[in-house]
Design brief:
It is built from 18 helices and 27 strands. With 544 residues, the protein is an alpha/beta fold. It has three domains: 179 residues, Alpha-D-Glucose-1,6-Bisphosphate, Chain A, domain 3; 223 residues, Alpha-D-Glucose-1,6-Bisphosphate, Chain A, domain 3 (3-Layer(aba) Sandwich); 134 residues, Alpha-D-phosphohexomutase, C-terminal domain (TATA-Binding Protein, 2-Layer Sandwich). A seven-stranded mixed β-sheet has the order 2-6-5-3-4-9-8, with helices on both faces. Strands 20-21-24-25-26-19-27 form a seven-stranded antiparallel β-sheet. β25 and β26 form a beta hairpin. α2 crosses α5. Bound molecules: alpha-D-glucose-1-phosphate-6-vanadate and cobalt (II) ion. Alpha-D-glucose-1-phosphate-6-vanadate binds next to loops. Cobalt (II) ion binds next to loops. Its cofactor is Mg(2+).
Length: 544
């Protein structure tokens, strides 16, 4: 028996979606009516779900299963026609995006806090994706946030949990639930995009690889595609079983959090190629034998070699990067004679460019790369892209990077994160820099002349919407650049991100330690922002 219950509730403060959905401590999401309020506010913000088809899945972190049951009951109670859900409520973010598009769904709910740690003490998150498969643009998230402030009741079905182990179709009240294999459609899409024969031949020739799934959602995808379909040896994928607390790790694929993989790749017995992905499978780290590739460089290399991939053989329509991402891809675009867009941080800003056919490839310095095949960044896709390029060029990562830098120059790049900073101190620091924007240009800081200083705002060329206050950007003579912004995904205090870039065109200087190469920009950041005194920190918490 099922019965729809209407439960009176009151607005809960702070349910404002950030860079990528609403992220809070798991305990906060588990608190009284927190999840229910937010889900009902999504329904209210998007004009209801009556008669709609939704996709549902998550990265498997603690509370994923329970939250999925709540979403199902609330979708049924509000008259949704159908929910397509991944088995055991699992779906990587790119796989969810693909399903929404492929099945013509009206939208979807992704349960994930992505690269944030999981578990009872960790973080949880909920994101709404629209009918194009992409994260809801600000116009929609603003409406959802407004709805959280005026909510008075939510509707939920009284029913038992729906069994989600095993594919098939079940009914929940009048709503159909289709439980699908989370990997199958995604694997099919990858086959359509890449030259699987060439990659298969590469592995057959003895090419070795290690993929660290970081105990997160990509494990089953990587096992299926790399080991089974493409013939990479068994054991290629490590930490392949998704765990609710990611094995107590931090599922963020960068040299700090994927240190085991980094150590192997820099060691004496390094495989030819290494890669990792994050909690929800939309980020990627690329590392060759003794050669780490920054995400900004990765985007540039993929753009330069895209025509080796069957799906992009006819060339790219354009490329886009988030503003803090290095300008390496800009020079590739210039060489190709295609447009290059700089957008605010967060994948939702790429959606319109992709939908309008203005950009084919997009990327962010935070290890996100993707294309118009879905409307999310896609970790495993980026790894397959690299494999496809290496297979076709018959070279190693280090050789490819050398050749790339010789042709385009090298953008030294690093990001310094100061985490859990007192919010007032962090805002004070940003205000302090903001006040200097008008006077900085023309002045010299730490031996470098400032050429530009601005607070980044973005005018979407497709729908004309404007996003303001998207980071402080300071340019120096010779193409060096400093960007400061506060994170919109953290759940504790404020996280200050300091992005540093320096362009080097002298091949004799291509082998420097990035922190050494960037020393003048790091000094300028300190001089302009007074980071040490204002945050009370001697050094960043994380350097990537
Ligand atoms: C961070 C990254 C941003 C990325 C976002 C979501 O946001 O900087 O580039 O799009 O995380 O990534 P912020 O606001 O903390 O800087 V994921 O893989 O966590 O969905
Ligand atoms: Co992610």
């Amino acid at each position: 028996m099922t019965h729809i219950r209407t439960v009176p509730t009151e607005p809960i403060e702070g349910q404002k979606p950030g860079t990528s959905g609403l992220r809070k401590k798991t305990t906060v999401f588990q608190s009284h009516h927190y999840l229910e309020n937010f889900i009902q506010s999504i329904w209210n913000g998007i004009g209801g779900v009556e008669g709609k088809t939704l996709v549902l899945g998550g990265d498997g972190r603690h509370f994923n299963s329970q939250a999925a049951q709540v979403v199902l009951r609330m979708a049924a109670a509000s008259g949704a026609k159908k929910v397509i859900v991944g088995e055991r409520a699992l779906l990587s973010t790119p796989a969810a995006s693909n399903l929404i598009r492929k099945r013509g769904a009206d939208g979807g709910i992704i349960l994930s806090a992505s690269h944030n740690p999981g578990g009872p003490e960790g973080d949880f998150g909920v994101k709404y994706n629209a009918g194009n498969g992409g994260p809801a643009p600000e116009g929609i998230t603003d409406k959802i946030f407004e709805a959280t402030k005026t909510i008075t009741e939510f509707r939920i079905l009284d029913s038992q949990d729906v069994g989600l182990a095993g594919t098939g179709t079940v009914m929940l009240g009048d709503m159909e639930i289709e439980i699908v294999d989370p990997v199958a459609d995604y694997a099919e899409l990858m086959k359509e995009i890449f030259d699987f024969d060439a990659i298969h031949a590469l592995f057959r020739s003895g090419f070795t690889m290690r993929f660290d799934a970081m105990h997160a959602v990509t494990g089953p995808y990587a096992r299926m595609i790399l080991e089974e379909e493409l013939g990479a040896g068994p054991g290629t994928v490590i930490n392949a079983i998704p765990l609710p607390d990611f094995g107590k790790g931090h599922p963020d694929p960068n040299p700090i959090w994927a240190k085991t993989l980094m150590d192997e790749m820099m060691g004496d017995h390094a495989p030819d190629f290494g890669a990792a992905s994050d909690g929800d499978g939309d980020r990627n780290m690329i590392v060759g034998k003794h050669c780490y590739v920054t995400p900004s460089d990765s985007l540039a290399v993929l753009a330069a070699n895209a025509t080796l991939v069957p799906a992009y053989a006819e060339g790219l329509k354009g490329v886009a990067r988030s503003m803090p991402t290095s300008g390496a891809v800009d020079r590739v675009a210039e060489g190709l004679g295609i447009d290059c867009y700089a957008t605010p941080t967060g994948w939702k800003f790429f959606g319109n460019l992709l939908d309008a056919g203005r950009a084919t490839l997009c990327g962010e310095e935070s290890a996100g790369t993707g294309s118009d095949h879905v409307r999310e960044k896609d970790g495993l896709w980026a790894v397959l892209f690299w494999l496809n390029v290496l297979a076709r060029k018959q070279c190693l990562v280090a050789e490819l990077m050398d050749a790339h830098w010789k042709e385009y120059g090298r953008n030294y790049y690093s990001r310094h994160d100061y985490e859990g900073v007192d919010s007032e101190a962090a805002n004070g620091l940003m205000d302090h820099v903001r006040e200097q924007l008008g006077v900085l240009p023309g002045n010299e800081v730490a031996g470098m002349k400032v050429t530009s200083a601005e607070e980044f705002a973005y005018d979407d060329p497709v729908d004309g919407s404007r996003a303001e206050k998207q980071g402080l950007q300071i340019g120096f003579e010779g193409g060096s650049r400093l960007v400061l912004r506060l994170s919109g995904t953290g759940t504790e205090g404020a996280t200050l991100r300091v992005y540093l870039e320096k362009v080097e065109t002298d091949p004799a200087k291509f082998a420097l330690d990035p922190q050494v190469a960037l020393a003048p920009v790091i000094a300028a950041a300190e001089a302009i922002a007074g980071i040490k005194t204002r945050t009370g920190r001697d050094a960043p918490d994380v350097i990537t």
